[in-house]
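Chapter review. Work through the record for Concanavalin A-like lectin/glucanase superfamily protein before attempting the end-of-chapter questions.
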Amino acid sequence: MIALLRSTALRRAACAFALCSPCAHANIATVFDSFESGPSENGWLWENSQDEMITTSGGDPGAWVDTGLLYLSRHPAFLAEPTPGTPLAVALASGRLRAASIDIERLDETGVQGCQQTHLAGSFVSLALFDLHSDPNPYIWAHTDGSISATFPDGFFPWMTASFTVPPASTETPPGWILHVPEGFAYTWADLLANIDDIRFYVGDPEPLQPSSCSHLGADNALVTYDDETIYFDGFDAPQFPGRAAD
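Structure tokens for Concanavalin A-like lectin/glucanase superfamily protein:
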């Protein structure tokens, strides 16, 4: 399920309806960062930004996280690898992540010296979830593809909201998601949900290699929703990571 809304208030109402309707018995908890008080304790940042800052006005509304000028990245992404014990780390480690959303904008840098803008093609915002500890070479991750991801147009665009639901744990990778697992590893979608360390919103398809090019991006209103029950809906404990498959 994917919703693309240009009004934060409408996004909040739609998100609440989508989350509460199918799982009224669940104890829904949220982690929300608006950046009105500065950087978040949850560690949100723009990947590879050298000039990131909190801009206090012009967000959706108010403050927002600004990449700064001359942002160079092959895969622009707004991400968090939260410190253990922070609210976002608790949500990701719960094994019961249910939804995530972000507000994104792409600003006009026409005329900015030293910025040859080439990241101007239309694409989609992709939600990605990472397990960085089970097998670091390479790490394990999953992301949404273009079929369930919010699209954005060519050129510069004002604030837009990309909202995602995260399907509950199962052995099968859900439609619209791509799971990347090292060869020979016995690992499922349920294992990923039980081992999330890092969450990212990619501005563009995260898979194809792209030249490191100049962008100017903004992010606001990072929202993560999870079920803080102590057991899974099927009554079993959270799945444990099974390890590498036997040869």
